[in-house]
Amino acid sequence: MDSVTQFALGAAVAGAVLGPRTRPWRALLWGGVVGTLPDLDVLIDHGDAVQNMISHRAESHALFWQTLAAPVLAAAIAALHRERRQFGRWCAAVWLVLVTHALLDAMTIYGTRLLLPFVDAAFGTGSLFVVDPLYTLPLLVGALRFGCDGGGPRGRRWNHLGLLLSTLYAGWSLFAQQQALGAAHRSLRDEGIAAERVLATAAPLQTVLWRLLAATPDHLYEAHWSPFDGGRPVVWTRIERGREHLDGLEHSAAVAGLAAQSQGFWKAWREGDELRLADVRMGLEPHYVFTFVVGRAGSPVAAVDRPTRVGARIELGRGLAWLGRRMFGEPLPPPR
To answer: Which residues are CB-contacts of 28 (< 8 A; sequence separation ≥ 6)?
Structure first.
């Protein structure tokens, strides 16, 4: 999730655990700071743009390493504020802040390696978009009321309510995602499309409109579904995967790594003399946030030494205007 959300979640969790045992703004600020620490791994350069993408949300988001780090961070905070008697509470707060950060990230589609160093698998449900005000606002309001009330009973109740509402919203997103997946599977069956993988991810900023993806060996299929569609058939757009462009490069580190990270939802194409590869889970056809130059045209195609990122974004105004109308059932094609 975005940094504001992780700061708000960390602050709310720390405030709930520490309550009146320390100054309220101290709990909120340290909770927010610790809640942003795992994402500082973006500052590490792993050699090229593809490896930087794959290595984000890795060790710093792994529950095992977070559990080892929590007592160290808690001891430092307790010592700084001369609250060693509250070490247990600080330790519980820091651990919960770190763990909830990772678990929330795993509800987006990017991929979070929760079980390192034991299992090198990226988890991502895709039930929440990376920025969702309806998840974040209850946390912000509750935490601010907690701080302004001086950590008193009323403020604690507001903070608890914010955490409850945001958690219920996250739970709703999982339920809504299952409805979208059900619609996708029914439509694919009716269309006679034998998909190897099917995915439903929340469209930006909400959990009403869902982007559907289906993958076959040679094609991808993209569609959108909303419960306000009124039973209209799902309209799929077929996308060429461009597997032929990868001849000779399938085993390069960049191609293999991105194919694994995307869980098979990738496409390749040539643009000029560049071979481009995209993770199609994030973005819209043909605009994908994570698009990389992985090769140069030739006979044969040659892998580049350092893949670079060339991700494109849809113009904000057009995208929001489409989203606002499409989520309530208006049958509009996505902006291209």
So the answer is: 11, 14, 15, 143, 146, 147
**186 within a domain of the structure (yes/no):** no
Write down the pLDDT at residue 247. 81
Query: Which residues contact residue 220 at a Cβ distance below 8 angstroms, ignoring those fewer than 6 apart?
Result: 213, 214, 238, 239, 240, 241, 265, 267, 280
Longest dimension (CA), the chain: 71
Segment 232-288, tens digit of pLDDT:
999 999 999 998 888 878 788 889 999 999 999 999 999 888 899 999 999 998 889
Kindly tell me the sign of the dihedral angle through the C-alpha atoms of 272, 274, 280, 282: negative
pTM metric for this prediction: 0.94
How many separate domains does the chain show? Answer: 2
Alpha helix positions (H), the chain: 3-18, 24-36, 49-55, 63-80, 87-105, 133-148, 153-191, 253-261, 316-326
Domain C-terminal end among 69, 91, 124: 124
Residue reference for tokens 């995209």: 278
Residue 117 lies in a domain: yes
Distance, in Å, from the CA atom of 244 to the CA atom of 256, rounded to the nearest integer, reads: 15
Q: What share of the chain is helix, strand, coil (3-state, %, to 5)?
A: 50, 20, 30
- State which residues form the domain around 84: 3-124
Count CB neighbours of 261 within 10 A: 21
- The pLDDT tens digits of the residues spanning 39-87 come to 999 999 998 999 999 999 999 999 999 999 999 999 999 999 999 999 9
Asked if the structure places residue 301 within a domain, the reply is yes
**Residue at which a domain ends, from 124, 159, 180:** 124
State the pLDDT at residue 19.
Answer: 93
* pLDDT at position 163 over 80: yes
In a domain, 230, yes or no: no
Residues 202-223 have a mean pLDDT of 96
